[in-house]
Structure prediction request, 1097 residues.
Amino acid sequence: MASQVDALYIYLLLVSGIMTAVIFLAVAILAIKYRRVPGRDAHPIEGSMILEIGWTVLPFFVMLTFFVWGAVLFFQERTPPADATEVYVVAKQWMWKIEHMEGQREINELHVPTGENIKLIMTSQDVIHSFFIPAFRVKQDVLPGRYTTLWFKATKPGTYHLFCAEYCGTNHSGMGGDIVVMEPQDYAQWMAGGPALPLQDTGRALFAQLGCATCHRSDAQGRGPSLVGVYNSQVQLEDGRNVTADDNYLRESILDPSAKIVKGFNPVMNSFQGIVSEEQLNALVAYVKSLSEPPTGTAGLQDQPAPSPAQPQKAQVQ
Amino acid sequence: MASTAIPANQAPVAPKLNYLNNGHTLKSWLLTTDHKRIAILYLISVSAFFFLGGFFAMLIRLELLTPEGDLLAADTYNKVFTMHGIVMVFFFLVPVVPAILGNFLIPLMVGAKDLAFPRINLLSWYLYVIGGILFLHCMLNGGVDTGWTFYTPYSTSASNTNVVEAGLAIFIAGFSSIFTGLNFIVTVHRMRAPGLTWDRLPLFVWSNYATSVVMILGTPVIAITMVLVIAERTLHLGIFDPRLGGDPVLFQHLFWFYSHPAVYIMILPSMGVISELVACFSRKRVFGYKFVALSSVAIAIFGFLVWAHHLFVAGISLYAAMVFSFLSFIVGVPSAVKVFNWTATLYKGSVSFATPMLYAFGFIGLFTIGGLTGLILATIGIDVHVTDTYFVVAHFHYVMVGGVLMGYLGGLHFWWPKISGRMYPEGWAKLSALFVFVGFNLTFFPQFILGYVGMPRRYWQYPPEFQVLNVLSTAGASVLAVGYLLPMIYLLWSLRYGPIAEANPWGAAGLEWQTTSPPPTFNFDETPVVTWEAYNYDEIPAPKELEAPVAR
Amino acid sequence: MEHEAHNPALVHQFSDEKQQKNAASLGMWLFLVTEIMFFGGMFCAYLIYRLTYFNAFAAGSQQLNIWLGATNTAVLIVSSVTVVLAVKAAEAGKRKLLVGYLVVTVLLGMTFLVIKGFEYKEKFEKHHVPGSTFNFTEKFDDNGKQIPVNSKEAELFFSLYFVMTGMHAIHMIIGCVLFTGLAILAWKGHYTSSYFTPIENGGLYWHLVDIIWIYLFPLLYLISRHS
Prediction:
């Protein structure tokens, strides 16, 4: 992808360079050729319709090539492959907190293997930041209150700069880090080092702890809709709208449940804003997403915890 | 049909009573309603702010000589680049050509005694000054560190600097802009001299007219946006705060809805200056006059349709991004048309190289580069990589400094004899122009490269591999600074010691050259009746010596 | 420079009264355009949030005092009539009538502000003022069905309500001051049947502020009021 960006850039530079050279040369040549000489007056010339049309239409078509190539490239940049490995990113003043699905956590560093599509699901705890990897030619603003995504596939092992690219206060320029790209076997080794609970397991535990399972039963007998298979499905709402249950939908459902009520249910769920941290939110979302994967072994349906005690404990906000 | 121009080459005599010596008291200046005096008031205050903004720029470039943050504290640096932006955008670039050259020239160019609303014109200056003083107070009280773009929620919840005061200063200065634009529109519509039809107007008037339309439609939106930011910050509302249900990206839409057209407010008047310069120093009508005039209007209209190209990676949808990318290319077309027409004007002309023309050449070259890099930014696939980096910084400095400022300097020199009654020293002026051109390119060209290799903007410290390019940039800035200081010195010098200028030292077309240098308070002894086309250079004899100062 | 005898109201930059009047008129209309753009930003924000948080906005709207709002609308419409009548009186050269209508307009404007004051007081008492005292427990009455809403979203409604009506009220105050000034000048005899441009232009301003309210009222007060 980076090389495609560079290819387009070189094309743009070339065209711009030619255009600049044409103008510079035209001005220089005309100015010198028609410099003021006593006895030679200027020729009054009104204009030329042909030229006007020509130099309006021709640049327009050249610009169209810029636009089309850029739009196609942008479409690819913004469309993560379906099989991409997800990594959660939480930005805050002034650091990057990374959570791999397998549970590894990193601060200001992101380890990834070569040859794998990586999709970052990002949010901010406070102000707007921006995740920028110059070497991969990718950038995406990270916003508070919602998820934004960015994807890439690293091809060469090495360490690459990570920068924050949206001004966010005192230490904006210090909010950098490293993207560490490793060969798959080295990456697997790194992954294995250190205890880690897969993100969706953290989420499962929270799901029980916070009492979510009381209403969101997998047998659809609860006061809330079953969450099995909900991720990326079409959901019919009370007010008639049909929405896709994507990452932002799941996140919103936890923080602002009354925004979208599923058809056939009542708005009884309280909001968890301020009760769960961004990391806990990511874990819960990861868990609900896992309920849409085909069951491998004991994951999925059978893992519904026993009905929780009458008083659900509130999780600590980190 | 011959114009009633005062023939060139007549021995110049300073007019006994002109707008400059018509009243010497402070009151006669501070309570003036003469558009020419108000233009001088603006010249003084805008120049002061330019040097303040330049001082901040110097601090930025000095800090960036080394990768570490070793000159200023991080917070201080953040305030410095914020205030550099606010001062340069709101207190320099927006008013510089319209409020100085526009105010001075438009009534003259349309053959009127003054603008339509002289007292509102004076009010406009006072609003500028009040906004300016408020900003200075904000600065002395600790400044503001949000970036000139005030993105939320940083500006509404996280920053602990004087956001409210800065916002208020911008709000007030915005009304200065609105009233200037309102005045220009009414003047051009209702006060043209008999015979001066729209298609006989100088292109400088066309540009300022288009600019004024943008001013009155766009500026109120930044006003309300600043009001909302102030309200949110002081009353803790939640309009832009996601924790309270608000949307931080909504701020960006509202902000850029004005701030993009604002850049056309800045460039259009300068483009108008270039049209005048190229015509005069080629001694022929601008090629494709109608197309250049209509391009100004097209830029003004399309300028309102492209704002979200500042939000390509901000979280807008794929499809919105594509629409705004396409529209951003469209808005580039009329600018290109202008550049081609100016170039074509040189063909079969009689080209001379006085300082104003050198600035015009500089503008054409640098604006071309700036504009083309704008197209690069409009290409979304590339923008993802270069947005929020020094590439953008380089782009906008090319169009703002290489464009707006060069146009202003060219115009200031061109009309200096008319404004002051004196000629500036041509040798020093040419030297300064050279310093500006070389210094500018050395400062900002390396920044294109810096941006592409990944240096983000608004960085106090940076990885060491970026140092060489930063050092080049700072070196260029030192040269550029000399290029700006020199005119300050020799223009002031010329007020006292410069050769007295005749009414039309350049042998230029345009009603402003048909009155004395400087003009009398009421501009014309008799209302002119226009029976000739614009840029009737075939009827105006060229001055014998275009460049040598005219002796007393 | 020649100075023919002319209407003392003619200012030097214009060649005749017609040009001056046309210029003043055009200038005023342009100013009104800027006001529309100014309020437009707020209307835009309101529109977006209302679409996103419809239920909460409807619930908030239903809590506004529709009777006070409607009364205020009527007050403003009547005041626009008195403005028209004032202009007509000026045109006819009837000084006392002109002053009378101007004064009535100001009184109506003040009535509007007083009623608004009562409304704001009511909001304060019900804890609907955004900020630390905000407390919204009311539901959205959707044709009998009571739908609970997110308190933060309702707070957003009230934030926009106060900013929009507050900004409108500021413009009303400016209008009242302006018209008081016009009334005083009219009383002193500044306006004749051949020169009453400030009355006309002041009238345009008042009409615009009135029209903005005509939009504000249904947008803010009449969301989902079926029965």
Notes: Confidence is low (pLDDT under 50) at residues 1-6, 547-552 of chain B. The radius of gyration of chain B is 23 Å. Chain B touches chain A through 92 residues (CB under 8 Å). Residues 207 and 286 of chain B are 14 Å apart (CA to CA).
